[in-house]
Every structure is written in C-alpha cells, then in structure tokens.
C-alpha cells in the first residue's frame, strides 16, 4: 500500500464564513449534541469518517445496515446517525438548517436536514451488532439511550469541538498526514487501543512494525469506549509513561476522539477506514478486536478472530493492510512474549486477563513485572485505589412499604460507625422532597427521578463516598442505566428488598395501598403500575420473618465479600 498523504477534504468552511454563519445560526432551531454525537461530528468534520459528508440519510442507512455499503456502493460498515426525540423531529422540514451545539451551547456545525425517519432499531441491532441483545453495549445504547427518530443531512462545519485535555496529543487526519509527510514516513502501522499498554502490547506493536517494515502510530481511543473501561485521563497518563520504551524516531502517539460501538468485525473494518483517513497504510487487528464481551446467555457475541476474517475479505477496498496477531502470551522459560500459536509444546504460559488485572488492582495485590511496566502500574494504582478505599453505591429497590428505607437507615448508621468514608442516604421520600419535588409518578417522571438519584450517587461514588439509595425504582432499564453510570466510578450493589406485594399491602404503613385500591391514588406501584423485579441483583433480601438488623447485617456481609469494606 502506498500512503495517500495529500490533505483529505474536511467539512469546515473558512474562518470568515464560519463567523458569518455562526451569527446567522443564532436564529435557527438547534439541537444539543449528545456525547456520542459530539464524537461522531468531530470525525465527520475533520475527515476521519470520509467519504461521509454528514449524518446518514435513509437510503445510505438502510444499505449500511444490510450490506455495509453506502447507497453508491462504497464500503462503510457503521451507521453514523443523528438520533433525536420525537418532539424535536416533529417540526423539521427537508432542507431546513439546524444548528448543532456542544454542551456549552457553542454552535459547531449546521445540519441541512435530509431524511427524517423512525428506524427499526431491532433490525439495526440484529444486522449491525449481530443480535438484538441488551448485553451488547451498543444495542443497549440504541434502545435505552438513543432517541427514537433519525435525522440525516449534510454538515457544514463551523468549528471543531473544544478539548481542554491533552491538546498537544490530539491530531486531525490532516495533521497526522502532514506529520508523516514531514518526517518522510511512508509506511505507517496503526495500533488501536482502549486499554492501558502493558508489555504484551509493546511486544505486539514492535513485532507489527517489524513485520510491516513500517513506522508505528499508537492511536488510542479517548472518545467513548466500553462502559466500565479505565477513564481516558488515566490511560493517557499510562501511555505517556510507556512512550519512552519506544524509539521516538520511529514511533508516535496520537489520541482519537472516536465513540466506539464495540461491534467486533464491523468495527474492525470501520477502524481500518478511519486509519486510512489518518494516513496509515497498515492496521493491527488482534484477538477479539473491539469485542463487546458476553451476551445475555453468557456466550461471546463474536468469534475471537471474526474481525480478522472480515477485515481480510475487504482489505483491498479498505485500502489498509491488516497486520493480524494471535493472542500474545508470556512464555516463562524464554522470558518473552509470543503469539499463542507460536508457543512450543510443554512451555509454561503465563497470562493475566483484564478481569484478573482489575481484581488485583481492586484488592491491592501484586502485579508482576513480566506483565506490565512499574510506571503504568503505579499510575493505575493511583487512580484505582483498592476497593476498600473506593466509593460505591448501594441501591435498594422494592415495593413501597417493603422496608427499603428502614434497612437503608440501619445500614447508613452501621457504615458511619465504621467510619473512613462519608455516607449519604438518598431515600425515596427525601429525594422527592429535595430533588424531585415537582415530579409525579408517571413513567417519565419516575425515570427522571431515578436518573437524578443515579447522577447524585455517581458523583458521590466518583469522589470516594458511599451513596445509599432507596427508591422504588420499578423499571429494570432505568436501574441498568444508573448502574452503568455508577460502575464507571465504583461498585454498584443492587439490593432487592423482596417483600411480597401481599405483605406490603397487609402492613400498609402509610395507608397508601388502601387508597390505591380505592382508586384514590393512581399509578401505584404493584397495584396499578408495574414493578420489574431485578433478575440478578447483587443481593436479595427476604424480609418476612426477619428483623431489620439482620437484613442490614446481610448487606454488610455482602459488601465485605465484595471487598468494599475491610474484613
Ligand atoms: S419511584 O418510582 O422510584 O420514582 O418512587 P419513589 O421516588 O421511591 O417514591 C415512592 C414513595 O412515594 C409514595 N407514593 C407512591 N409510590 C408508588 N406509586 C405511587 N403512585 C405513589 N404515590 C406516592 C410512596 O410512599 C413511596 O414511598 P416508599 O418509601 O417506597 O414507601
């Protein structure tokens, strides 16, 4: 492959036009971009997603979903769509201009509206991600986060999104192309990653550069990765810590503000196209590239080498050569890393999986030198203290009158008695007085209430405190959203207070069940509104015939077994 290092077309207008358009755009209907849309827009505007010129219109979308191709036949595996609410979509007309704003309200681009349609999300999930299964992060996103309507249309770029972090490490496709041109790099192999680099990665990238006789671009994703991943601030500090292990004359690192979908094979092809746009000639595809983890039946969504297979099939069209690797393992006798398929018989193979690494970090255990670099481990330990020092959330859910608040109170007192971390109780009634006083009990309002609780709990967890929540939280999807938000910062311990409806009604502490039965309270959980019992909570408490103290003890034991409080 020869690199194409001439500038790639961007969607930005000149500085002068942008200034003028921005002034006029103040009067336009505007859409506040979600974090994912913000990432997509940046790569659309700077040519990272070339040849796309905007968010997909319907014909392009349909063919991308079904055949991985745009309407004109060009290979493109990922639907890049602008999802909006029904209310917003209602007023839109074809060719209307819409101002796209960042979270601070700055207008970044103008969208000239093309098609507006309601997609079949189940079909998108099946075709693009291989299964309509909420265990897949992108399918979950599609059903539980993305708006119900898509708006296609061309983009006029006014300015790139502003980043305040690691500015010197972020490059547009044209900046990287210019850099390669300037240094005379003609063969460039890109390494994509969403994890810190350990010794296996170093070996793999060295080998790839040697094999391809190419310069190396370490190109980590700092946009959106898999929920639960190590945050990009920590990762970039880790990357910087290992960069001096690489020869600076032949290697460089640049950060990519991509929102990953974890779509395995399709994602690998997409990553290849993006790297071609950034001036690369080769791309490393390893084992389980952009893998989403297990499906709801506990099996892998994709085979470990499906991504390599699909990439190979389309290599010519992608325009980037694949450097494929088997899983790298450490061979003790040779004291070096080797691809698993090259290891001789009888050799002792050592390996620490991602899960095992997280466990060791969480429990403050040793991480051996053969696995990682001391500077990386130090950085990881700094941002991930052992679990017993991290923040966490205990989230009680159950019917009204099930005993949530009483147990939550007892737990709070016991945790405060132990000391060490600040404890906050977000009880249903307290929250409704202080945070959600204007809300009722419709589905929409309950969701909003729980999301507010989740937000406060995630902030508490992030900052090393203990949040105890005790709302009814009747909807599984909303609880899951809250879990995802919190698990980015610390543990989420769901406790189902499983007192039966009959028992709650028999107790009827607040007299509400009687009123609900008489129809005087509408939408009452369990009587005239649904409750999704948690399928696999961390703990289920049977309260009938047991006292509060015993229930609180069970929660403490659970927290202890999870390493969240010292034994
Ligand atoms: S939710 O669904 O999670 O937002 O509910 P939550 O914020 O926990 O509020 C539940 C408390 O409000 C009282 N209440 C009702 N509950 C359920 N359905 C209806 N329609 C309703 N109307 C008022 C009730 O006292 C709940 O308190 P708890 O502590 O759960 O008994």
TrEMBL record:
Native species: Hasllibacter halocynthiae
Coiled-coil spans in chain: none
List of residues binding ATP: 398-405
One Pfam entry name: APS_kinase
Gene: cysC
Keyword vocabulary terms for this entry: ATP-binding, Kinase, Nucleotide-binding, Nucleotidyltransferase, Phosphoprotein, Transferase
Catalytic function, reaction form: sulfate + ATP + H(+) = adenosine 5'-phosphosulfate + diphosphate; adenosine 5'-phosphosulfate + ATP = 3'-phosphoadenylyl sulfate + ADP + H(+)
Protein name: Adenylyl-sulfate kinase
Function: Catalyzes the synthesis of activated sulfate.
Domain APS kinase, first and last residues per copy: 390-541
A Gene Ontology term for the protein's cellular component: cytoplasm
Sulphate adenylyltransferase catalytic domain span: 170-382
Domain ATP-sulfurylase PUA-like: 7-159
């Amino acid at each position: 492959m020869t690199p194409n290092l001439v500038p790639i077309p961007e969607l930005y207008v000149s500085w002068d036009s942008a200034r003028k358009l921005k002034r006029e755009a103040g009067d336009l209907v505007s859409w506040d971009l979600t974090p994912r849309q913000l990432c997509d827009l940046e790569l659309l505007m700077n040519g990272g997603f070339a040849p796309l010129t905007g968010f997909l219109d319907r014909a392009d979308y349909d063919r991308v979903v079904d055949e991985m191709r745009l309407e004109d036949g060009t290979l493109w595996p990922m639907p890049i769509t602008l999802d909006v609410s029904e209310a917003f979509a209602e007023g839109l007309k074809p060719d209307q201009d819409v101002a796209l704003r960042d979270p601070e309200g700055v207008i970044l681009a103008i969208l000239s509206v093309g098609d507006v349609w309601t997609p079949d999300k189940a079909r998108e999930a099946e075709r693009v991600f291989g299964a309509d299964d909420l265990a897949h992060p992108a399918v979950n996103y599609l059903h539980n986060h993305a708006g119900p309507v898509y708006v296609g249309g061309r983009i006029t770029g006014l300015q790139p999104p502003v980043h305040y972090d690691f500015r010197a490490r972020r490059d547009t496709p044209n900046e990287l192309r210019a850099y390669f041109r300037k240094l005379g790099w003609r063969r460039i192999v890109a390494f994509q990653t969403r994890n810190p680099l350990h010794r296996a990665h170093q070996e793999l990238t060295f080998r790839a550069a040697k094999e391809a006789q190419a310069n190396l671009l370490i190109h980590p994703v700092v946009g959106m990765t898999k929920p639960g991943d190590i945050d990009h601030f920590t990762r970039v500090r880790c990357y910087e810590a290992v960069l001096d292990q690489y020869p600076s004359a032949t290697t460089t690192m640049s950060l990519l503000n991509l929102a990953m979908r974890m779509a395995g094979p399709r994602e690998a092809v997409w990553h290849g196209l993006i790297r071609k746009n950034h001036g690369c000639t080769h791309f490393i595809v390893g084992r389980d590239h952009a893998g989403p983890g297990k499906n709801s039946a506990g099996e892998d969504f994709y085979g470990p080498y499906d991504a390599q297979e699909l990439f190979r099939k389309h290599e010519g069209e992608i325009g980037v050569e694949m450097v494929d690797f088997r899983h790298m393992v450490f061979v003790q006798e040779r004291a070096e890393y080797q691809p698993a398929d090259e290891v001789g018989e009888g050799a002792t193979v050592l390996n620490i999986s991602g899960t095992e690494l997280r466990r060791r970090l969480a429990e403050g255990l040793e991480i051996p030198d053969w696995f990682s670099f001391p500077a990386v481990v130090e950085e990881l330990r700094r941002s991930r203290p052992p679990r017993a020092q991290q923040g966490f959330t205990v989230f009680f859910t159950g019917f009204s009158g099930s005993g949530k608040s009483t147990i939550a109170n007892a737990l709070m007192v016991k945790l405060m008695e132990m000391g060490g971390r600040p404890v906050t109780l977000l009880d249903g009634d307290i929250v409704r007085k202080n945070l959600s006083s204007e809300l009722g009990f419709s589905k929409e309002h309950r969701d909003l209430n729980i999301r507010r609780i989740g937000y406060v709990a995630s902030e508490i967890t992030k900052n090393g405190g203990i949040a105890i929540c005790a709302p009814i939280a009747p909807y599984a999807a909303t609880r899951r959203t809250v879990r995802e938000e919190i698990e980015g910062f610390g543990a989420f311990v769901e406790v189902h207070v499983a007192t039966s409806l009959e028992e709650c009604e028999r107790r009827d502490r607040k007299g509400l069940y009687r009123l609900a039965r008489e129809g005087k309270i509408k939408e009452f959980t369990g009587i005239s509104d649904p409750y999704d019992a948690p399928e696999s909570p961390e703990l289920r408490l049977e309260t009938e015939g047991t006292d509060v103290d015993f229930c609180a003890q069970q929660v403490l034991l659970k927290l202890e077994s999870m390493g969240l409080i010292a034994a």
